[in-house]
Amino acid sequence: VSLRTDSSLSGDGRPFRRLLVANRGEIAIRVIRACRELGISPVAVHSDVDADALHVRLADRSELLGAAAASESYLRIDAVIDAALRSGAEAVHPGYGFLSENAAFARAVEAAGLVFVGPPPSALEALGNKLAARRSAADAGVPIVPGTTVALEDDPAAVEAVGLPVMLKAAAGGGGRGMRRVDRIEDLPDAMAAARREAVAAFGDGTVYVERLVSPARHVEVQLLGDRHGGLAVLGERDCSVQRRHQKLVEESPSPAVDDATRDALFDSARRVARTVDFHNAATVEFLLDADGNHYFLEMNTRLQVEHGVTELVTGLDLVAWQIRVAAGERLPAEVLEAPRQGHAIEVRLYAEDPYDGFRPTAGAIGAWVVPDGPGVRVDAGIEADTPLRPEYDPLLAKLMVVADDRPAALARLRRALDETLIGGLQTDSGFLRWLVDDPAFAAGMYDTSFIGDQWGSGPPIGDEDAALAALAAAEARRLTAAARAATPPSATVSSAWGQRAREDGLRR
Amino acid sequence: VSDYEVTVDGTVRSPASGWRLVLDDVAHGVGRLTDGERSVPVVVEGNGSEWVVTLRGRRIPVTVRTWRERLIAEAETASRAQAGPVLVKATLPGLIVAVAVEVGAEVDEGTTLLTIEAMKMQNEVRAPRAGRIVEVSVASGQAVATGAPLVRIE
Questions:
Q1: A173 vs A435, residue with greater confidence
Q2: Which of B15, B28, B58 is facing A424, going by the closest CB pair?
Q3: How many CB atoms lie under 10 A from the CB of residue A24?
Q4: Confidence of residue B80 (pLDDT cuts 50, 70, 90)
Q5: Quick check: pTM over 0.90?
Q6: Residues A362, A368, A374, A375: what is their CA dihedral angle, to the nearest 10 degrees?
Q7: Which residues contact A292 (CB under 8 A, 6 or more apart)?
Q8: What is the longest distance spanned by two Cα atoms in chain B?
Q9: A409 to chain B, closest Cα gap in Å
Q10: Is A303 a catalytic residue?
Q11: Minimal CB count within 10 Å: which of A45, A89, A162, B146?
Q12: Which pLDDT does position B74 carry in this prediction?
């Protein structure tokens, strides 16, 4: 491993003097904050529409990458490398998504004489191919979901041998794309074609493999942190079973479904998978857990996860800071390698999506933006009040996390925090989340990956009390604006009508 | 002004009695509903008759209409309900004070066809869909009863 000797090893105590954050939104802000606390000068990057974004304003400086489309800005390896060199950065943190698991990018960063804050390019490559990772895991003695370990051709016999129903998955997959469930063999050709099409569009690689459907199943993952000297910390599990479109909405640690024996087995499997590659930095090993407590390896994500904060809250560790420190060559101390876990943490993701309409993405601008605060509450947000949503990027608005002594206390805290959360302008999934914390099955920890489809559907009808309260609120609001309008010309928006009224009230005082 | 008709998600609702709206951030419509015992945080956005109330994370569309807006809306709904050739009928009794179209005219959806004065209010009758006027059954100054044929559009 070659390291720049003018960084932490030079002795001024800082891992790097300057670090480029190759991302946007809440994760860019998260990394910028870690940089500040480590005494590192953070450099942001932005597309032309993000020039005034929150992450740009929080950094010391920011470099323009290109046009709004991610393919012309945040996904451009050459532009990001140029930005890093231009700004004098010594290291690059990719965040999650975009270029974070791109081995060519990690290589380009190293070729430019910079440090990539993430696992080595060889690990990104080996684990990026889910099919190859599946073979390596099986070779290392880790249970995998029964299925094929070679690319699937249009071969009904191979699929029937696995046993229906099955999941088709993209070898280059991630984020739920290129995945198709097949219940009947006659549906295979169409499902294959759809999975291939989606995989080619998303990853440029249409290789598909097949796994037997595990149902009911929980999605449980193990957080890893490794240094460049062989130190490997296993920092507990997260249960991410509340999903829509195979994408996570809620994560918690510890998992209500994992007992000590299962946990030991999960941790052992996670270690084995990590040892199949030259590994350091942060990664997550994902498993399915069946109703009998058996676990099956799914994939290993060689980057910081969206839900890393859950682990930070139960371990007290700053994972992003440790990513940067191990990237600079530091050894993980005993406090990290044997970090105890305490309490219970839950994260919910606030998305611009309509849970009453199949979690369809919503568009527009955020109006009101009131986020919770107080003991045991953490909000990682990438937006603020009165901001238009950028349709080019991920609709994740913010992550709301809580931590408390145990799960019931964490749920009570989450309920309180969601009640303090007020978002205007567009529908978010917060209506679903608020329902979730009162759901008896969720409160009992009884949920699996089909929970949203089975228990929520399109949500309950509007209750009588809520309808009467909404009626009152709107009628009262109309009365207020009518009073304001009596004195002013008609205005296009309620804000200006009310603003006018507020000014008049001020004048009268 | 107290006799608004309030429709929540397609159903006419009585506003919760004993509750009031307190706005804390007027510009963003952020406030709370309170009955003196309990307080429910709320975001209220909109203008005129169309509002959205966010309650416990759910955006609830609410229509708040005066009696006059209600009559107009009902008239429009009634006319729109018919497909194919459309016969626009009077949805309220009144006096035709203006006829804005003549036979043969091409109209867009929403074009004002005529104006009916009822209870000293002028109500515009609009085209429920685009088409050609094939018949005008009334003239300015004529009194009409509810259901009287006014204009036929093809």
A1: A435
A2: B28
A3: 29
A4: low
A5: no
A6: 0
A7: none
A8: 63
A9: 20
A10: yes
A11: B146
A12: 83
